[in-house]
Structure formats: structure tokens, C-alpha cells
Write a structure and sequence with these properties.
alpha/beta; 17 strands; 15-stranded mixed sheet; two-stranded parallel sheet; single chain; 488 residues
């Protein structure tokens, strides 16, 4: 007779299953050849967290998408590649840039992500929501053919209500209006009255990457569309960091102050590329034929000054691993005098961290501007764990006081910049669908530099005294958060 304390067959079966799962997922992690820090983090979770660690990896460890979505994305990407080749044949290869270094960057970026640098564009920086909303509403009120929108967050309230009314007016005039919103980022909007009014008023609203328990079994639930795109009549494009959210109303109870964003307004041949990115996501969700959608969404070149060269850098789990991170590292390595970065979330890989530190060591004025407070305690501590490393080698780390600085920008030598939706954290660099605009041109880059300098004036500098004044609890929290950083 078995004694009460002897292991039962059920217990042995449970133990064997857990062991097999750990071995299986451990080998899977090694086989994927992830960045070392990410691989070690997942191996630690799988090995040291019984059963629950394998469940976490199953849901969040791989870039799983449904078979249907994978097929749609593959088809859309093939057609985009064909369109990009035609664009290159028409003029992308004739681009001239201010320096050989910029030309080498443009060619390298094209090799990584497939999109050529396109000359002959106008681009204007809208400094904040107060500038952006009136401009957006005015352009939508003048739309004659179509308005295409793609956003991670739509949050009702304030000037977003005026924006919704502009869309309804456009739809009533016969303008085709299409809105793609992320299922998680816009969850409250999807449940609300404005969502219903837009659909009832003729706006085509599609929810991207629907989530839920059963869907999570076939697709990773935290793969999100984080892009911010507006295309009006194929003549005007907008992108940047700003969601459809009024900072006077959005997350007022989060305790971080108003969200601070910027947006770029673009005219010229580069609008076609922005439209193609939108259509690839739209068709992946709706199943529409990409080539037919392109034919029904013609673009028009309405640029005047034509001074800016623009290169689109769409990234996400559908493209090569770490491609956009390589873009960042090459940009930092190309700097000769100055680097300024703004990001709300800073959790760099070792490669990105060391590139920043190396820039400072070789005498490049390197400045990182981040918000003093963010809407995630874990992210706050993980970011803070890197500041001492940077300050020790001469990087200026500035903590923005007035609110949650959400602008994502990198300027190099006041001649070249990266601007868009990309955060400097693992989620943006590897998991989210993002859109980044590389701009080769002094005027726009100078405007972004001026905006960065205005942020710097409203910031406190992080110093070694800030490190020394931390309590033991804060030190412990930053150490633990840094270990978890690769998984955030």
C-alpha cells in the first residue's frame, strides 16, 4: 500500500510534462538565435518558474500570428516590394544627398527594409497637439476623395470629438473614410458611442489584431499595430508619435501629466509609400485585394518646395529581426558632432546601449531626453537602471518635467533625423508594427532639433547624486527591472 507522502502517478505525470515542456521551449529559445539578453531572460523564466514560465513563453515568447494573417501579410509585402521596385526605377535611384555618409545610410536602410529614399518632398513639423488637431481637421474638411487613418490609440474626449465630427462631415460629402484602430490600444473607444456613430455615419472602421483568450491560442496577444498614419486624397500624409487622443483629457488620472507629442505633415511622392504601408495593414485585416486597393487609392504629388528626401522604415514582426535596431545603431555610428534622442520608454539592448556610450566616448555630444515620470512603474525602473552607465561616459540624460514626453525622435549632426512611432524599447524594436520616417534635410531636422532643445530647457539633468540618493528598495527595483527589461 502506498504511503500518503509517496508521489502519485498523477504527480509524476505532472512533473514529467513540466520537464518536457521546459526542455522543449528551452531548445526552441536556443534554436531561434535571439539576442543573448532576450534568450537568457526567457531561459530564466522557463527554467526557474515551474509550469507558469512555459505558459508565459507560449503566449508571449514567439511572434505567432494566425495562418490567415500570415498569408495576407506575405501577399501584401510581395506587392509592396513590386511597387517599391517601380518607385526606384522611376527616380529613387537618382537621389542626391548632402553627404556621402547620408547616401551610405540611405542605401544601407534600403538593403535592410527595402524602401528607397525618395526626393522632392515637403515636410512640416507640427510641434504639439494644439498645432496638430486644427491642421488635421482643416485638411479633412478639404478632402475630396478619401481619408485613410491608422492608429494605436483612439481615446474619446476633447478635440478628438471635433476630429470625429470632421470625419463624419467628410463621409457625408461622399469622401471614403477608412479607420484602422488597434484592438487593445483603442479598447475603450471600440466599446463607446463615438465608434458606433462613426460606423453609422459611413466611416469604415476596422479593429486590427482582435484579442481574446481563444485568439491568443493561435496568435500572440501582444503583437500590436503601433503606427500613426493619416493619408488624405493621396496628396497629404501625416505621421509621428501622436495618437488620436487629446492630452488635456487622455489618462488624466495616471499622475504623469499631459502627454507631449509631435506630428509631421508631408506632401510629395513619399506620400505613396505611407499609403502603401496603410494599405498593407488594412488589407491584412480585411482580406481586400492589395493591388485593387492600390488602384482605388491613387496618390498625387502636390509638393511645392521639394527640399526633403524621405525614406520610410516600416518595422515589425513581419520583417527581419532587429532591422530597425540596426538602423538606429548605424545612425548613431554615423554621427560626427551631435546626437539627440527623445523617447518615452528607454530600455535598450546591449548593442544599442554600447553604441550610445561609444558615441560619447569618441567626443560626440550625446543627449537623451526622457520623461521624468512614465505610466509604468516597471518601465520606469528598467529605464532608470541604464542612466548611470550613460552618465558615467558623458551622455547627458535629461528628465522632462511638464508631462509624459511621448515624442520619438533621433537627430544626427542637425542634418539627418529619424521621426515616427518607434520607442527605444524591446517591444517597439521587435514586436510592434511601427513606422519611422528617415528625413535627409537640414530644415526639418533643424525644426526637430529646436523642439528637442525646448524639451531640454524643461528638464532636470540626471546626475550621480540621483544614483547615490536612491533607497535600497529603489536600487533593488532597478536591478530586478533591468533583468526583466528584454521581455518588456
Amino acid at each position: 500500500m502506498n504511503l500518503p507522502h509517496e508521489p502519485t502517478s498523477v504527480a509524476w505525470g505532472f512533473f514529467s510534462l513540466d520537464l518536457l515542456l521546459r526542455l522543449w521551449f528551452g531548445s526552441r529559445i536556443l534554436h531561434r538565435r535571439l539576442p543573448a539578453s532576450v534568450a537568457w531572460a526567457w531561459l530564466s523564466v522557463v527554467v526557474f518558474v515551474p509550469l507558469f514560465g512555459t505558459v508565459l513563453y507560449l503566449f508571449f515568447g514567439e511572434y505567432r500570428q494566425s495562418g490567415r494573417r500570415q498569408r495576407r501579410l506575405k501577399t501584401a509585402q510581395q506587392i509592396i516590394n513590386s511597387a517599391v521596385e517601380k518607385t526606384t526605377e522611376k527616380g529613387g535611384a537618382q537621389v542626391t544627398l548632402a553627404s556621402d555618409e547620408e547616401l551610405r545610410l540611405a542605401r544601407a536602410f534600403e538593403g535592410l527594409l527595402g524602401w528607397p529614399a525618395i526626393p522632392g518632398n515637403d515636410i512640416r513639423l507640427l510641434l504639439n497637439a494644439s498645432e496638430a488637431f486644427p491642421c488635421l481637421i482643416s485638411d479633412i474638411d478639404q478632402a475630396k476623395k478619401f481619408v485613410d487613418l491608422e492608429f494605436y490609440i483612439w481615446s474619446d474626449g476633447g478635440r478628438v470629438e471635433d476630429f470625429a465630427q470632421a470625419l463624419l462631415r467628410a463621409a457625408k460629402r461622399g469622401v471614403r473614410c477608412r479607420l484602422l484602430v488597434d484592438a487593445i490600444g483603442s479598447a475603450q473607444f471600440i466599446k463607446g458611442e463615438v465608434f458606433k456613430k462613426l460606423r453609422a455615419g459611413g466611416v469604415q472602421v476596422v479593429v486590427a489584431l482582435p484579442s481574446g483568450f481563444w485568439r491568443s491560442l493561435i496568435a500572440r496577444p501582444d503583437l500590436r499595430i503601433h503606427r500613426k498614419i493619416i493619408v488624405i486624397d493621396g496628396a497629404i500624409g501625416f505621421t509621428g508619435s501622436m495618437n488620436l487622443a487629446d492630452p488635456l483629457f487622455f489618462k488624466k488620472d495616471a499622475g504623469v501629466g499631459p502627454w507631449v507629442d509631435a506630428l509631421a505633415r508631408i506632401q510629395g511622392p513619399a506620400v505613396q509609400g505611407l499609403s502603401d504601408v496603410f494599405l498593407s495593414d488594412w488589407c491584412a485585416e480585411t482580406g481586400e485585394e492589395f493591388s485593387l486597393a492600390c488602384a482605388q487609392t491613387p496618390c498625387t504629388d502636390t509638393a511645392h518646395d521639394r527640399k526633403a528626401v524621405i525614406q520610410w522604415l516600416p518595422s515589425g514582426p513581419a520583417v527581419k529581426d532587429s532591422s530597425i535596431e540596426q538602423v538606429l545603431i548605424m545612425s548613431l555610428n554615423a554621427a560626427r558632432s551631435e546626437i539627440i534622442l527623445t523617447t518615452p520608454y528607454f530600455i535598450p539592448s546591449e548593442a544599442l546601449l554600447y553604441s550610445l556610450m561609444a558615441a560619447a566616448r569618441r567626443g560626440i555630444r550625446t543627449t537623451l531626453i526622457v520623461p521624468k515620470l512614465v505610466d509604468s512603474h516597471l518601465t520606469h525602473y528598467a529605464s532608470r537602471s541604464f542612466y548611470q552607465d550613460l552618465v558615467d561616459v558623458g551622455v547627458v540624460v535629461a528628465l522632462y518635467r511638464p508631462g509624459l514626453l511621448h515624442t520619438k525622435s533621433v537627430t544626427i549632426d542637425k542634418q539627418f533625423c529619424l521621426f515616427g512611432s518607434l520607442n527605444l524599447d524591446p517591444r517597439s524594436l521587435r514586436i510592434n508594427y511601427e513606422i519611422t520616417c528617415a528625413v535627409y534635410g537640414w530644415e526639418f531636422t533643424q525644426a526637430v532639433c529646436d523642439l528637442q532643445e525646448s524639451y531640454l530647457k524643461d528638464s532636470d539633468l540626471f546626475t550621480i547624486k540621483d544614483v547615490e540618493s536612491q533607497s535600497w528598495k529603489e536600487v533593488w527595483a532597478t536591478d530586478v527591472a533591468r533583468l526583466l527589461g528584454p521581455l518588456l
